[in-house]
Design a protein that fits this description.
The complex is a heterodimer of chains A (about 100) and B (about 150).
Chain A lengths: L6 H4 L1 H11 L3 E3 H8 L3 H13 L3 E4 L10 E4 L1 H25 L1
Antiparallel strand pairs in A: 1-3, 2-3
Chain B lengths: L1 H21 L6 H18 L2 H26 L1 E2 L2 H4 L1 H27 L4 H30 L3
Helix pairs in contact in B: 1-6, 2-3, 2-5, 2-6, 5-6
Classes of the chains: A mainly alpha (about 100), B mainly alpha (about 150).
């Protein structure tokens, strides 16, 4: 089955955000920021795009101490990311298949 | 386009490796989980209804508190169900081991006069949490470093 590129996931920073979130159940905002090496504002902008597409959920659990923001990929986001990665792999495999 | 795909897949692999680097389980995590499991198994095998219930509540609340502490320390949470692959199998093995041990502990404790097997089951439960928990961690980090 040929998978589809996802324009929302395709942008380099969003692809890395999705890769990080797909590898976890949920991740704290500052950890995503540190691993990507981007500013808070840049990360917030990309998360907003992913959230608007229904690919991530953002929660701020209340409790003791400072409130931290947690981000996780939705099932739809996981499907879109998995399809995008598969499409990338298929693109790399295609020339080798043709050469046989 | 092909080189672009290679770059993107490399970026994904680097990101997953960075997640693996951050997942350093505190030394006390699995021993504490083992103590909770052992306490639960002892409560089931040796206790009255009230103690069994209290043991169950303590186990659930304690495991939740441990997970919460882990999340706070690492900023990342990966549940056994989301881990996938070999790591998920180790997580299921921990759950299955606690379940089977709980049933064994209850029946031995309440339908026989023997007490030492219950203590043995509790010790085994503690050891299994340590061993299988470490296996889960190792498998998870290997999966993350294996790439997209």
């Amino acid at each position: 089955m040929t998978e589809q590129f996802d324009e929302v996931v395709h942008a380099p920073n969003r692809l890395r955000i999705c890769a990080l979130l797909a590898a976890s159940s949920s991740t704290e905002f500052s950890v995503v920021r540190d691993i990507l090496g981007v500013a808070d504002s840049v990360l917030s902008k990309h998360l907003k795009v992913l959230q608007d597409a229904g690919y991530v959920t953002i929660s701020k659990p209340t409790g003791r101490g400072r409130v931290k923001t947690w981000v996780s990929l939705t099932p739809e986001g996981r499907r879109a990311y998995a399809g995008h990665v598969q499409a990338l792999k298929e693109l790399l495999d295609a020339p080798r298949t043709d050469a046989r | 386009m092909e080189s672009n795909s290679t770059e993107h897949l490399s970026a994904i692999a680097e990101t997953r490796a960075a997640v693996a680097d951050r997942l350093i389980t505190p030394w006390w995590y699995h021993p504490a989980l083992g103590v909770l499991a052992a306490g639960y198994l002892l409560a089931l095998g040796l206790g009255s209804i009230a103690i069994m219930l209290a043991g169950g509540v303590l186990f659930i609340v304690g495991a939740g508190a441990l997970a919460s502490a882990y999340r706070r320390l690492t900023g990342i949470w990966i549940s056994g169900f989301d881990a996938g692959g070999t790591a998920s199998r180790w997580a299921k093995a921990i759950g299955g081991m606690v379940g089977v041990s709980a049933v064994a502990s209850y029946f031995i404790g309440h339908y026989t006069d023997l007490r030492w097997p219950v203590w043995c089951i509790a010790v085994l439960g503690f050891a299994a949490c340590l061993l299988l928990g470490n296996r889960f961690d190792t498998a998870l980090r290997a999966q993350l470093r294996a790439g997209a």
